Amino acid sequence: MQLSDRDIELIDGFLRKELMKSQLEEFNDRLNDQSFKDELTYREDLKVAANAIVREERKSILQDEEASIQDHNDNKPDTSFNKKWLWPLLIIAILLISYLGYKSAKDNPVDSPALFAEYFEPFPNVINPIEMGVEQEVAGPFQLYEQQLYQEAIDAFNQNNDLSESEKFYLGLSYLYIDETALARNIFSEINGNPSHRFHQASEWYLSGIFIKEKRISEALETLEKIRDEAGHPFAVKAEELLGLIN
Questions:
Q1: Alpha-carbon distance 131 to 240, whole Å?
Q2: Domain residues for 123?
Q3: Domains of the chain: total
Q4: What is the pLDDT, as a whole number, of residue 41?
């Protein structure tokens, strides 16, 4: 059964904890519809996956900072020199850093490969993940994607001429991670044009990544601003961070 725009509004409002009492009653009534429940489950999985990506990136940043501080402490230089030279040296260092930062920004405004690698990790397989301790004779396309066997996943997905919403989304991801950005862009653009698609928001996020990867910065900025400004978007925080680095 095709869900209505009202159904999507109720689900998004529930996930953002913004439903009023009358709306919550309407939401509970709609839970009797299996299609509605399935959509809620998918969007909950999407939110969990997005949060997991953010947590892993923050954990990695904290670990890098701790390692940098420890390395600094281990190699702390002798500071017994005459303090009268401190301010002149500090001013020179600030001017030098400012100049190098300006020159770097001018020569290479956006380090597209580095930004893409840092912010656009593969989306978790929330459809049919590999179960630990369970042997499978033949891996399905979602399991192949999870193992980063992207070309094999593409071949498996493309055996089906009538792809489901989930299959089309993960096919786009598989194309993206073998650098077939034009094919991935076409898929994500199609999904992005359908707000009721369960992977609409995730597709919008990876579409911005494609624009960065292809150095189409104005389009990347436009997409990231849209993500940032959408209330409850699971990738709003990451979009805000990226905008700060690009602008």
A1: 34
A2: 112-246
A3: 1
A4: 82
